[in-house]
């Protein structure tokens, strides 16, 4: 069944949208990522304008994250105090990102900025995660004890220390706030939950145990992406409700499935799978930027700004 999306001004098969939402939901539950890094470029691939893809993709991330975090709350694998600290920085970063996005939209550079951001951040993060996950797998195979991530790090000598009992940490609140702000900014610019940066930062920078990282990441993603979606809707009217509903239905179901799959896989295997997925998306977007289209100039009807 074909659906006409009024804000995006395209017609898309309903099953395609449900499938996209379901895939992103599975990833959300497995890895603790909102899945925006995947849903936004996929929406652009089926013809949704970048501005609408970013804003509506963030909306879908909220739903899949809510579904995933509920499953983790039942298992007591969410550090709510750490999540609130990350959230404080995330709100500030998101507000700044919305402001920058509005400027780029007026300049007509949104599409290029979104694509370049994906190539840069997904490529760098994917490579770092791949390197670390391979080391973790090698250590597991050889029986070598891993180096504790939170020892001898400068970030843990900073002031404003707080206790995070669920994570077993006593560290400065400054690094979590900065990580949250960076993720909030990316959420506004790229339509992502930021889990692909949040998860490795929580593990390797903050030294959080893997068992609470996924649930805590999803908890923070819920509120930052909800705020981002609201601001995009108010400032640019770029949220397509029909598109969002179809993605949400698939995402909620997929997140429950992904959570169950994630609990059955070893932590180092999860990191490796996420790293490969992030790198694959970076390569795909880079190729789209480099390959010359078949038709250099295409005239399509559209609305005046």
TrEMBL record:
Membrane topology, from the record: Multi-pass membrane protein
Transmembrane residue ranges: 12-39, 51-71, 83-104, 110-130, 162-179, 185-206, 213-235, 241-258, 270-291
Keyword Membrane included in the entry's annotation: yes
Protein family (similarity comment): Belongs to the 4-toluene sulfonate uptake permease (TSUP) (TC 2.A.102) family.
Record keywords, A-Z: Cell membrane, Membrane, Transmembrane, Transmembrane helix
Protein name, entry field: Probable membrane transporter protein
Name of one Pfam family that matches: TauE
Locations listed in the record: Cell membrane; Membrane
Principal location listed in the UniProt entry: membrane
One GO location term (cellular component): plasma membrane
């Amino acid at each position: 069944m074909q659906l006409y999306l009024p804000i995006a001004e395209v017609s898309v098969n309903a099953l395609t949208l449900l499938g996209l939402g379901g895939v992103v939901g599975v990833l959300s539950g497995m890895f603790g990522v909102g899945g925006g890094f995947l849903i936004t470029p996929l929406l652009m691939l089926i013809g949704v304008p970048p501005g609408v893809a970013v804003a509506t993709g963030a909306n879908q991330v909220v739903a899949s994250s809510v579904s995933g975090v509920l499953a983790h709350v039942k298992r007591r694998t969410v550090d709510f105090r750490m999540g609130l600290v990350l959230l404080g920085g995330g709100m500030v970063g998101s507000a700044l990102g919305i402001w920058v996005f509005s400027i780029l939209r007026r300049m007509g550079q949104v599409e290029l900025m979104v694509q370049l951001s994906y190539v840069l951040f997904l490529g760098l993060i994917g490579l770092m995660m791949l390197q670390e996950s391979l080391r973790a797998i090698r250590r597991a195979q050889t029986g070598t004890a891993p180096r504790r991530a939170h020892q001898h790090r400068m970030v843990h000598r900073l002031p404003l220390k707080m206790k995070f009992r669920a994570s077993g940490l006593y560290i400065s609140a400054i690094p979590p706030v900065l990580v949250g702000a960076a993720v909030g900014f990316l959420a506004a610019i790229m339509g992502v939950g930021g889990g692909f940066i949040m998860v490795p930062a929580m593990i390797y920078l903050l030294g959080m145990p893997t068992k609470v990282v996924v649930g805590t990441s999803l908890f923070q993603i819920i509120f930052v992406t909800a705020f981002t979606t609201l601001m995009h809707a108010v400032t640019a009217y770029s949220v397509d409700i029909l598109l969002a509903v179809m993605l949400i239905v698939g995402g909620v179901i997929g997140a429950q499935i992904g959570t169950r799959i994630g609990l059955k896989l070893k932590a180092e295997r999860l990191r490796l799978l996420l790293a490969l997925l992030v790198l694959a998306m970076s390569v795909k977007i880079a190729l789209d930027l480099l390959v010359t289209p078949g038709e250099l100039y295409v005239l399509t009807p559209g609305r005046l700004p």
